[in-house]
Design brief:
The chain is an alpha/beta fold. The protein has 17 helices and 16 strands. Nicotinamide-adenine-dinucleotide (NAD) binds at residues 112-116, 121, 139, 141-142, 170-171, 174-175, 188-190, 193, 196, 211-213, 245, 342, 344, 370, 412, 417.
């Protein structure tokens, strides 16, 4: 494998130098090929995703294919504009010079993907990398073997291995790939592995985009539309079996509305959970299933408040209900592990609050989340959360949907990631922005900086400080 990956890398290096010159029509043609192949393989994609973790076809279309197709189409439409050099002002000292920002392809890029959205999290960064003119080696997750093998087949049919190659394997394969001097590494996965990736990248000073995990809190205040908040929070936990990086994870709810919110969750649950075996994704593996079991059992200090979905959890089926746990001894001081670890499943840790300031204070001291959700009709509260908290993204009166807009950057901050992508942000993540200055015919300003450094020049130079 080591030699194979090195040979593959060298082949891509040669191709990347050739692709550095690629024009907008050439890049568009690559993206169109990708779009056409995704559409041609739609049925097989739905089947593979079903086989890997029982994901309902509707969810695969809406949360995987639609978003990927959207990203690819958006790139096809805009790549020419994105590639165009951007003129910037030259300022007084560079009078007569022309200053521009050019986007160079980074070169050979590595994309390492997680298992939870095996299509969207492979195809969206790939679209950005191709739009930016790079070659790509991709390492999808070993936990979705059907999807990963199909991805390899699809991309193998439309690209030669020196253009885009899918390498299958587990963390050992990632480790071998990470030893190579990639021009950029785009990693989506856990915060713990993100640190490993960043450390590996430092050996070659490869640039990185890290799309990581963590806890995404939701706040429901006393003015919220409770019926709406209930169904959106429930959906955020239901979709993909709650195994979504931006799934709401800890719910802070105002004491006065918690009883009504529970009723509304039950009502929404009655609508959602009519055919749980067909409509609810499985937990990805027995190991992950066991982890959820332990988490729900060991949540001392928490009581189960609302449950939606299957009554019994069988190891064969691996379908887990959405469960809202409530912190019994209310008060943020008795915060326990269910509210500390990333849950990455359909459990919700609910903390009742009386004073929003305590929630804001708590959020300020915790790791910065990938997403923060606020359900409130009060404009002042909305403004306060906007100004007094930080997170990868903030969504007011909804969950998850911010990632569907390619005009918005998607990414984390601090332990939830660094860098961002989607749309133009993805193109920029996979480009090097090169400063280009073309000197003009007026040389006076440049000459002023050269010796001899006379007293008069010093006087003039000091005057410039005041401009
Ligand atoms: P993971 O970090 O375990 O694995 C991700 C990828 O890294 C896989 O391809 C895996 O083979 C590889 N890998 C695992 N261990 C490695 C190691 N030691 N060295 C090098 N590579 C290694 O993550 P996962 O379980 O596949 O996905 C779930 C995590 O990903 C959650 O934390 C979730 O929040 C996060 N996630 C983040 C986003 C985002 O956009 N920010 C999206 C999806 C998932």
């Amino acid at each position: 494998m080591k030699t194979d990956s090195t040979v593959l890398f060298q082949k891509q290096k040669a191709k990347a130098l050739e692709w550095r010159r690629s024009t907008a029509p050439e890049r568009r043609a690559r993206l169109k090929k990708l779009l056409e192949a995704v559409s041609r393989y739609e049925d097989q994609i739905l089947e593979a995703t079903q086989k890997d973790f029982g994901k309902p076809a509707v969810e695969t279309v809406l949360t995987e294919l639609l978003l990927s197709v959207h990203e690819i189409t958006h790139a096809i439409k805009n790549v020419e504009e994105w590639m165009r050099p951007r003129s910037v002002s030259s300022g007084l000292f560079l009078l007569g010079a022309r200053c521009e920002v050019h986007s160079d392809p980074r070169g050979v890029c590595l994309i390492i993907g997680p298992w939870n959205y095996p299509w969207q999290l492979a195809l969206s960064p790939l679209a950005a990398a191709l739009a930016a003119g790079n070659t790509v080696i991709m390492k999808p997750s070993e936990l979705t073997p059907h999807c990963s093998a199909l991805l390899q087949k699809i991309l193998g049919e439309i690209f030669s291995e020196d253009e885009v190659a899918v390498v299958l394997g587990d963390k050992d394969t990632s480790t071998e790939l990470l030893a190579l001097p990639f021009d950029h590494i785009f990693f989506t996965g856990s915060t713990a592995v993100g640190k490993v990736v960043m450390q590996a990248a430092s050996r070659h000073l490869s640039s990185v985009t890290l799309e990581l995990g963590g806890k995404s809190p939701a706040i429901v205040d006393e003015t919220a539309d409770l019926a709406w908040a209930a169904e959106r929070l429930l959906w955020g936990k239901w979709v993909n079996g709650g195994q979504t990086c931006v799934a709401p994870d800890t719910l802070f709810v105002h004491r006065s509305v918690w009883p009504n919110l529970q009723d509304e969750i039950r009502k929404a649950g009655a609508r959602f959970a009519q055919r749980t075996n067909e409509d609810l994704s499985q937990i990805i593996s027995p190991r992950h299933f066991e982890r959820l079991k332990q988490m729900s059992k060991q949540s001392a200090g928490w009581k189960l408040a609302v449950q939606v979905g299957p009554d019994s959890t069988s190891d064969n089926e691996r379908r887990w209900p959405v469960q809202f746990f409530e912190l019994e001894n209310a008060g943020l001081a008795s915060y326990t592990s269910l509210a500390r670890e990333e849950i990455f499943g359909p459990l919700m840790a609910t903390v009742i609050y009386d004073d929003l300031s305590m929630v804001i204070d708590r959020l300020g001291r915790e790791d910065k989340p990938l997403a923060l959700y606020l359900f409130s009709k009060d404009k002042r509260t909305q403004e306060r959360i906007l100004r007094e908290t930080t997170s990868g993204g903030l969504v007011i009166n909804d969950v998850l949907v911010h990632l569907a807009n390619p005009e918005l950057p998607f990414g984390g901050v601090g332990t939830s990631g660094q860098g961002h992508y989607h749309g133009h942000f993805g193109f920029r993540a996979f480009s090097h922005e090169k400063a280009v200055l073309k000197q003009g015919p007026i040389k006076f300003a440049a000459r002023f900086f050269q010796p001899p450094y006379s007293a008069a020049k010093l006087q003039w130079a000091r005057r410039l400080l005041k401009i």
